[in-house]
Design goal:
alpha/beta, seven-stranded mixed β-sheet, 26 strands, binds adenosine-5'-triphosphate, cytoplasm
């Protein structure tokens, strides 16, 4: 199959990662079953051929007016002779390695006159190495444009002609709802376009038959996260990073001067960025298109809210306004107007910051590297499976599951949101967004305003809040949300400092609404944390529960927390004080809590790893031929190393689960040697090898580095870097903060429900069921409560990790994207010419 990919509409971070994945996976033509995370390397005998279309649909319409051979070239493209090896394998990848335009596309020197140029060539064949290291770049290297011509039938006819001329039969489109609609229109019209081209004599009957059907798949690239039927669009997480960085910076100056800041963020029809920035940035008030203020006068509403915050002692005010925010009569609400209201009515020193295009730019965050890579792979698979009658699909994501949804259904639902807003049916607009959106909005109200929703006095609880294990990004945000939920509902939040050790030492204090205000963006653990288990003195722990009259317990932490919960649940047989609802909210950079696919902190650490590796890779690349062995934390759990390898484009990864042996190392050295031999002369790059700190007791990072240095000879040099505690990250990522709020509020609601159930039992004989000691988990596409006893069967207690992690096959996937399996298989006679 000959696949072309284009990016269209507004650019977004992560688009390059999509292009990279589609090109690489297309060439390798592998089938990756994301549903079961099972890697099936089916048929390498013939990979797909891959093209990029420059400048979106406009490039498709313009096509190639100048042939490559007519240009003045300073370097011949690497297009090797057709001499297939006996099994067909090695030839295929070597042949598809480079077509020579990767650097021009990457450096944006495509139309440079006088040298090798892309001038007059919009549909460009690319090879495996042409897209190397693209995903650390922001925007889209193949360019995007809005094409008026493609909107016309004549334009689409020309686009169809150009595709057939280049022999293309499949198209991947990455863009917003307009771009995806364009893709669907194109596909629906395709048979007629082919017929017209044949009747006009522009293509032969044979070509018409060969190109009777067009395969199309859509990926959503949009910083607004405005597409229905997917939780996230490519580029939205990075934009959220940019906004939160700005809020964090503004927060300090706002506090210093006791100022108010009104931030305008992008989002014409979708308030996702404003909402999530509000949740993760700890804003006081937000304006979003889907849910305008409900009262007659929004000016009164915001003033009342901010006034109350100031009255309890808040020194700063952050208001976030989405670009498309309106009041309930659809009159636009603009940042300047909000500023005037706050200045005139409340006398606040108020400033406006419009973030504008800074939100689009910059290096993609970890999520915008992993998600587009997985979605790009799914896109290729979708194309391979497409039939003339199957609908065009859009690739989405639900929680942690890559999905395929009918493209036009998603576009129609997205448009229905705008229509509902225009019709002032805001309930309907909210209902068309994914459930998480609505939950996040309700969550924002719960934790940001001083409104009260007190439960009956008899149902009020004293809730103990505790951190355990190593600090992880999001722990403090989760605690802040829990404290504010408690206060809103009339419960008493109680901080237990320094875990069970602190409890035994009576380090127990009340927490206030204002006291936790700035915790959202703080890394580390505000409560203090350690690894002491309650078994240190279970009886004394129970006595402290009784003494402080805890009615419920929320513990935030990693594997130790699960273990502690288990110990206390089992302790219920002897200690009545443990007959209270108890929950564990997983938070650990190792992501080693069984059954949950994400823990708080796991995104922050991934971003810390990506940041460090980008810098290391730069240094490794500068010296052209350096392999860096990067050591990660993670205990005996390979999450950080494996998903980190996918997010950084590492060539090899070593995990404790898979271990290391001499045979593998020998093959890996062979792979690296082959890889460096195949690099274009003078264009070798630095490469990363990611190794978990305990992947092997014998082949340590030091041994690995020395071995690679020795074996690399003149081909490559080797260095090492141990990232250690830097991976705990400084400031928690916005995804971790938002997830922390959402999960923490769910934990609090769980504790409330279970407490009410207990209250129905006689006081002296209250007996909590095993279900009331549970862990909140993210599993595939949903959130699930798992009773601690049930989790035991899924835990590898000795190695302190889950038994079937979702990333088990990501190691192969990361190495596959580096071409390891194929390069190892290359016959030495094929390599001879590169020696
Ligand atoms: P963003 O959300 O960033 O605006 P978008 O994909 O919605 O992205 P649009 O400008 O709506 O951006 O569409 C991008 C391109 O897709 C258009 O310039 C046009 O070439 C093509 N396109 C959009 N709608 C159609 C359509 N109905 N028929 C044909 N082509 C279309």
């Amino acid at each position: 199959m000959k696949i072309a990919i284009l990016t269209s509409g507004g650019d977004s971070a992560g688009m390059n990662a999509v292009v990279r994945a589609v090109v690489k996976v297309g060439i390798l033509k592998q089938v990756y079953n994301l549903t079961s995370y099972l890697l099936l390397l089916t048929n390498f005998s013939r990979g797909c051929e891959t093209w990029v279309v420059r400048e979106g649909y406009e490039g498709l319409v313009r096509g190639n007016t100048e042939a490559l051979s007519e240009q003045s070239l300073d370097e011949e493209p690497v297009d090797l002779p057709d001499n297939t090896s006996p099994d067909g394998t090695s030839f295929n990848l070597i042949h598809n390695l480079r077509f020579g335009d990767g650097d021009l596309l990457k450096d944006g020197t495509g139309d440079h006159p006088g040298t090798r140029s892309l001038k007059g060539r919009y549909i460009v064949r690319v090879g495996f190495d042409d897209v190397r290291a693209w995903f650390a770049e922001g925007g889209t290297l193949i360019g995007t444009a809005r094409s008026k011509t493609f909107r016309t039938p004549e334009g689409r006819l020309q686009a169809a002609y150009n595709m057939i001329k280049e022999g293309l039969d499949a198209l991947v489109v990455c863009g917003g709802d307009g771009s995806l609609t364009g893709a669907d229109v194109f596909r629906a019209e395709w048979p007629k376009l082919v017929e017209a081209l044949q009747s006009e004599g522009r293509i032969t009957a044979e070509k018409a038959k060969l190109h009777a059907h067009l395969r199309i798949v859509g990926l959503v690239g949009s910083i607004d996260n405005d597409m229905s039927m997917t939780d996230l669009t490519i580029g939205a997480p990075t934009a959220l990073h940019r906004i939160c960085e700005a809020i964090d910076n503004i927060n300090s100056t706002a506090t210093s001067h006791s100022r108010a800041f009104v931030l305008e963020v992008m989002g014409r029809h979708c308030g996702w960025l404003a909402l999530l920035a509000g949740v993760s940035g700890g804003a006081d008030f937000i304006f979003i298109p889907e849910r305008p203020p409900t009262s007659e006068s929004w000016e009164d509403e915001i003033c009342e809210c901010i006034h109350r915050h100031r009255e309890v002692g808040k020194r700063k005010t952050i208001v976030i306004v989405a670009e498309g925010a309106t009041d309930r009569d659809l009159n636009p609400i603009k940042a300047d107007h909000v500023k005037d209201v706050l200045t005139e009515r409340l006398g606040l020193d108020t400033r406006v910051t419009t973030l504008g295009h800074t939100q689009r730019g910059g290096r993609p965050c970890a999520y915008d590297r992993v998600l587009p890579t997985l979605q790009g792979m799914e896109a290729v698979e979708t194309l391979l499976e497409a039939t003339p009658t199957s609908p065009s699909y859009m690739i989405g994501i639900q929680e942690n599951k890559i999905t395929r949804v009918p493209l036009m259904e998603a576009v129609a639902m997205t448009r229905a949101v705008s229509a509902a807003i225009e019709a002032k049916d805001f309930e309907k607009a909210m209902s068309y967004r994914d459930p998480e959106f609505k939950e996040s909005f309700e969550g924002f109200l719960k934790i940001s305003t001083l409104d009260q929703e007190k439960v009956p006095e008899t149902q009020r609880m004293r809730v103990a809040l505790m951190h355990m294990g190593a600090p992880a990004g999001g722990m403090n945000a989760a605690t802040r949300a829990a404290v504010r939920y408690c206060i809103r509902h009339g419960h008493t939040p109680i901080a237990v400092h320094n875990g069970f050790r602190g409890l035994l030492d009576d380090e127990v204090h009340g927490l206030s609404w204002l006291g936790v205000d700035s915790w959202t963006a703080r890394g580390g653990s505000e409560l203090g944390t350690n690894r002491t288990l309650p078994s240190v003195d279970l009886g004394a722990v129970a006595a402290k529960f009784q003494e402080h009259q805890f009615h419920a317990l929320l513990m935030i932490g990693g594997f130790e927390t699960f273990n502690s919960l288990l110990i206390m649940e089992e302790g219920r047989r002897h200690y009545p004080a443990f007959h209270i609802p108890m929950v564990h909210l997983p938070a650990t950079i190792s992501n080693n809590v069984p059954m949950t696919e994400w823990s708080l902190g796991s995104d922050t650490s991934l971003n810390a790893l990506v940041d460090a590796c980008d810098a290391i890779k730069q240094s490794a690349s500068a010296s052209r031929n350096r392999v860096f062995v990067v050591e990660t934390q993670g205990g005996k759990c390979g999450y950080l190393a494996t998903v980190g390898a996918l997010a950084t484009g590492a060539s090899l990864v070593y995990t404790p689960e898979q271990g290391m042996d001499l045979d593998t190392l020998r093959r890996d050295v062979r792979f690296l040697k082959t890889r460096y031999k195949l690099d274009a002369k003078g264009r070798s790059e630095g490469r990363l090898v990611i190794k978990n700190e305990v992947a092997s007791q014998v082949y340590t990072t030091d041994v690995m580095q020395k071995m690679l240095k020795e074996e690399g000879g003149t081909l490559f040099d080797a260095r090492s870097a141990s990232l250690g505690h830097t991976l705990q990250g400084g400031v928690p990522s916005p995804m971790d903060r938002a997830r922390a709020v959402r999960l923490s509020l769910k934990c609090m609601a769980f504790l409330e429900r279970e407490h009410v159930k207990l209250l129905q039992q006689p006081v002296k004989a209250r007996h909590a069921t095993p279900d009331s000691a549970a862990i909140i988990t993210i599993q595939s596409s949903s959130l699930k409560w798992v009773p601690v006893q049930e989790m035991v069967a899924h835990a590898d207690m000795q190695n302190r990790r889950g038994k079937n992690p979702w990333w088990a096959n990501i190691k192969e996937l990361a190495e596959l994207l580096a071409g390891r399996p194929q390069l190892i298989g290359i016959h030495s006679k094929d390599l001879a010419q590169y020696e």
